[in-house]
Write a structure and sequence with these properties.
globular; 15 strands; disordered C terminus; seven-stranded mixed sheet; Aspartate Aminotransferase, domain 2; binds pyridoxal-5'-phosphate; single chain; Aspartate Aminotransferase, domain 1
Length: about 400
């Protein structure tokens, strides 16, 4: 295969070589069931407990507060449905307009799933993608069962003030869940001092495999299982453990703790260089998301008057992997709900690209991307109806051509 420059780490990450190595014996010789009475299975159970301790250490949690799930989405669903079942008289949920579909599509469909009518407050964000804490506080009522707010946004990297928000919910006796899938491993998290009840994370966003997630459920917080079956996970999640992936996730968390400093210095510097060079070299381009309250690895950049999908196709020809801030739905290009919530202008939201880096990226790769993007944008603008109409002085939302 020709060259791949992978800058789509908020979509998924490569499995770290150290993680794969740690997992391999559990696909071959060490295939015991951790629940078995014999020591052949028992040694697997002991290894799972070691992994649980490593993950707890990264989060500042206790090992017994962690429940292994199949993915971030399952963790999100489990937390929110558990809270609603623990407080059967309360039907108000507070969340934001910029949540990942794993939370967004769940809370929008709760009435059908639970048979109860729910009231949903989706907090708005400003042009930088940040929340108004006063507005948040005012949204909480005696009917509120749970607040679900992501720690860091997957599209822009914007980080929310989860410690303050969780403390406010706690003082009102309201459950607080945070989807921390993008935050874990990238920013320090200490659940000993951040009073969330529930936190979701996903292995494949921090160099562990796909198909393994964790739900943190604080000791003392009532919990209702989502998957009922065997006694695994202390009866909180039935089903034989995804042993190799759990062990891989333990290793990935250990590595993340060791490399957090690099993420926040070297990776941040690469991201800043990429962003600075692209904004300087491409006219009519802008950053999406707060400049500093942001993950160190994420750059969301809008290139006005071009379509994100077209940019991605051209980047792909050079082996560059990134994401766009729009999704093809029913034949039209719909800008992402995140960028719309931030009030990014239509012509800019359409041409937004998310570059998300990892510790495996190099400066040479950044320079390679910067050497390709400006020409791609210039060529596309030559053909763009948006660009043409702008130059003819027309206004309004032209029809876009979609390549779905
Ligand atoms: C990727 C992601 C998820 C979903 O995680 P899966 O393990 O793929 O189910 C949820 N929330 C955020 C913020 C994500 O980035």
């Amino acid at each position: 295969m020709s060259r791949v420059v992978y800058m789509d780490n908020n979509a998924t990450t490569r499995v770290a070589p150290e993680v794969l190595e740690e997992m391999l014996p559990y696909f071959s010789d060490l295939y015991g069931n951790p629940s078995s009475m014999h020591s052949f299975g028992g040694q697997v159970g002991a290894k799972i407990n070691q992994a649980r301790e490593k993950i707890a250490a990264l989060l500042g949690a206790r090992p017994e507060e962690l429940i292994f799930t199949s993915c971030g989405t399952e963790s999100d669903s489990t937390a929110i449905l558990s809270a609603l079942q623990s407080l059967p008289g309360k039907h108000h949920i507070v969340t934001t307009r910029v949540e990942h579909p794993a939370v967004k599509n769940l809370v929008e469909n709760l009435d059908g799933l639970t048979g109860h009518k729910h009231r949903l407050t989706k907090l708005p964000v400003d042009r930088d993608g940040t929340l108004d804490l006063k507005q948040y506080e005012e949204s909480l009522t005696d009917e509120t069962a749970i607040v679900s707010v992501m720690w860091a946004n997957n599209e822009t990297g914007v980080v929310f003030p989860i410690a303050e928000m969780a403390a406010i919910a706690k003082s009102r006796g309201i459950f607080f869940h945070t989807d921390a899938v993008q935050a874990v491993g990238k920013v320090p998290i200490d659940l000993a001092s951040v009073p969330v009840d529930f936190l979701s994370l996903s292995g494949h966003k921090l160099h562990a495999p796909k198909g393994i997630g964790v739900l943190y459920a604080r000791k003392g917080t009532p919990f209702v299982p989502f998957m009922v079956g065997g006694h695994q996970e202390r009866g909180r999640r039935g089903g034989t453990e995804n042993v190799a992936s759990i062990i891989g996730l333990g290793k990935a968390c250990e590595l993340a703790a060791a490399k957090m400093e690099e993420e926040n210095s070297r990776v941040r510097a690469l991201r800043d260089k990429l962003e600075k060079d692209l904004l300087a070299q491409v006219p009519h381009s802008m950053r999406n998301g707060h400049e500093t309250q942001r993950l160190p690895n994420t750059a969301s950049i809008s290139f006005e008057f071009v379509e994100g999908e077209s940019i991605l196709l051209h980047l792909d020809r050079y082996g560059i992997c990134a994401s766009s801030g729009s999704a093809c739905t029913s034949g039209s290009l719909e800008p992402s709900h995140v960028l719309r919530a931030m009030g990014v202008p239509f012509t800019a939201a359409h041409g937004s690209i998310r570059f998300s880096l990892s510790i495996y990226n190099t400066e040479e790769e950044v320079d390679y991307v910067v050497s390709k993007v400006p020409q791609i944008i210039a060529d596309l603008r030559e053909m763009s109806p948006f660009w043409q109409s702008e130059h003819r002085g027309r206004t309004g939302q032209s029809q876009c051509k979609c390549v779905c």
